[in-house]
Amino acid sequence: MSCLANGKENVRISAFSSLQKSSEMSWPEPNPLEKLNWLIHLQHVRGETQQCKELIKSEIKKSGGRNEFAYFKQGMILREEGKIQEALESFQICMKLNPEHADNIKEVGKCLYEMRRFRLSLEAYLEAEKVSSCPDWQIYYNIGQCLMRLGEIPKAKEYAHKAVQIGKHENAYSLYIKILVAEGDLRTAVAVCNASIESCPDSVNMLTEAGILCLKMGQTQHAFEKLSSALALDPACSKALLGIGCITQSHDEYDVALTKYKVAVSYEPNSIALWNNIGMCFHSKQKHIAAISCLKRALWLSPTNWRVLFNLGLVHLATYQAASAFNFLCAAVNLRPDVPHSFTSLGCALFELNDYENAGRAFRQAQALAPEDPLIIVNNVLCLLLSDRKQEAMEMIEKFNLVAQQDGAVAKDVATLAEKLAAKLEDSVSSENRTANGICSEHEELNNNGDGFENDNMAAVAAVASGNLSREFEPDEV
Questions:
Q1: CA 312 to CA 316: how far, in whole Å?
Q2: Cα(160)–Cα(162) distance, rounded to whole angstroms?
Q3: If you placed Cys at 248, which of 8, 256, 279, 332 could pair as Cys (CB 3.0 to 4.6 Å)?
Q4: What is the mean pLDDT of each run of 10 residues along the chain (478 residues)?
């Protein structure tokens, strides 16, 4: 009581408080490394690249090279600028500062992938998978991509499936579908496409992919619906326009197809498939000079595209330029010796050049690749007639009749030609060669009148053989 009364205790308490405050103020406030990380991120997302780079350099210098986030953002900026090697070095510094952070390893793997060092990229992503605290669909997706590039399809399919199950992301679905298409499992690919549309109903890419897959399977109506839905969301989608054009072109609506292609080519002027299809539309409209111009532009974009070479051969046959047709068709055959109708068209070119022996070899090779094709059988009959092998020609006519009975979908023009050849076989030996030459001219006109064309697509190609007899959808190899 007395102490409080005389104020001595108050004096002691006040002195202690002032001493405590002075001691607290004497210690400097710590300066954390990540103090300005928020500003680095803000400038980066705003696109203020130059200011962000200067701030990063300043922060790295202040921290003595220990600011992990600054190095990370520096790597991101360098990669955006196309400086992949410098970006890789920045991310490797991040790995040294924090080797247990999966994001740093993922970025290293991404840089290695862009440098086409797929094996090292795969190793980086596998390491990221080990250190990741929880399953990450992006890691599985990137591992699948690397394995796909390395040709290990079964493992790539496994990781792509994991990515789809965990993330249900559009990119994961795209990779999984691509692997299924590569395996030839189109039915499962369509099912996955439909599942992806349920997860991403507004995805133009998935709707377009579904339409292309339906087109490959011959489901034209479903393909048209999917592609139309994609165009409703994005009228500038060149791939969907290409698919719609392919469908209309196959129904002989060439003007409608050209309208779609012209819109698409304004958005994607360097598309090989577009110029190929435009050329074949002009060919079908008997505008051969325009057709050759468009096809040669496609060939300039891709000099080793066998489909464009094949179509150029057909157009030159239609314009009676047999030597040029022979050159283009030989190139197509050398690039893809497993396509029977390339040999059929090559045989027609050799007929025009009066080389019946080699024409017969071409038709025999075509028949070896497709023994039940009616058009190839008819060509072989003609070749045998010209070679004065009447008995073998009669056997081939009998085979044609058997195939026609089993198939029931032989083109009318081809059936008519077969009937004429059968009738000519019964003529006298004296008029046989003259009549066969007349038939040869008519048959070449049948093959070259514009009915044979090929509808090429970015994700899917409709290779329609001579006479529009067989239609085949394949992935774009360009």
A1: 6
A2: 5
A3: 256
A4: 45 47 49 78 90 91 89 93 93 91 93 94 93 90 94 92 88 92 89 88 89 88 91 91 92 91 92 93 92 94 93 92 93 92 89 85 87 82 76 79 74 77 64 45 37 31 29 32
Residues 6+ apart with CB under 8 A from 281: 249, 254, 257, 258, 261, 291
- The dihedral sign for the CA sequence 223, 292, 289, 319: negative
| C-alpha distances in Å from residue 263, one per residue of 231, 267, 273, 302 | 12, 7, 14, 21
Give the pLDDT score at 372. 80
Between CA 230 and CA 170 the distance in angstroms is 15
Q: Which residues fall within 8 angstroms of residue 217, CB to CB, at 6 or more apart?
A: 186, 187, 190, 473
**Residue 462 β-bridge partners:** 455, 473
Cβ atoms of 347 and 384 within 8 Å: the answer is no
Taking each helix axis from N to C end, the angle separating 412-424 and 374-386, rounded to the nearest 10 degrees, works out to: 30
pLDDT given for residue 439 in this prediction: 40
Map residue 52 onto helix, strand or coil. helix
Give the length of the chain: 478
d(CA 74, CA 240): 38
164-171 long-range contacts (CB < 8 A, ≥24 apart) are 164/137, 164/192, 166/135, 166/136, 166/137, 166/140, 167/137, 167/138, 167/140, 167/141, 168/199, 169/137, 169/141, 170/196, 170/200, 170/203, 170/205, 170/206, 171/141
CA 183 to CA 189: how far, in whole Å? Answer: 10
Structure tokens at 474: 């394949």
Packed helices 238-250 and 272-284: angle between N→C axes, nearest 10 degrees? 20
The answer to whether residues 240 and 211 touch, using CB atoms and an 8 Å cutoff, is yes
